[in-house]
Recombination protein RecR
Amino acid sequence: MSSTRDIDKLIEMMARLPGLGPRSARRAVLQMIRKRGQLLAPLADQMAKVAASARECLNCGNIGTEDVCDICRSEKRATGEICVVQDVSDLWAMERGGAFSGRYHVLGGTLSALDDIGPEDIRIPQLVARINNEGVTEIILALNATVDGQTTAHYIADQLEGRVRITSLAQGVPIGGELDYLDDGTISAALKARRSI
């Protein structure tokens, strides 16, 4: 029996996290062990708390510690606008920017014929129900600019046409971006979305 079996198992588990490979996981675990009082024990306690309390918001699909998240409960966020995103990480990215003051809807994926993912496999029916129940005036489609993301956006737009205003995020050249570093698709999208100045 190896004397480092538990440590090796922790490294293996950490290496499964996005952004961490075996080397990074090994360094992180070693640092946590060296500072177990300040890092490892508090981290283990917090992970146990989150494992016991984290849940998906019944309304929008966000992750929190209550059945309905803070965003959905906030009367200040009841603007009639719902921003539709693919994953919770996209919602959190939008919130970091602080530019959107409405509510969200997390699909939990995108439509994909190759992976046999249809509208019932992601949270599109729940989105339609929210439009009927919440006085929604605008749906903002903030889906990734991938084939599956755009297919999903077009499907949702077709389903909701004539019921609410449907918009999407602008695409193209980022602020501070240099044309020489952009891919052909981004330049093409920027040209198509051009506006008067």
About this structure: The chain has a mean pLDDT of 89.
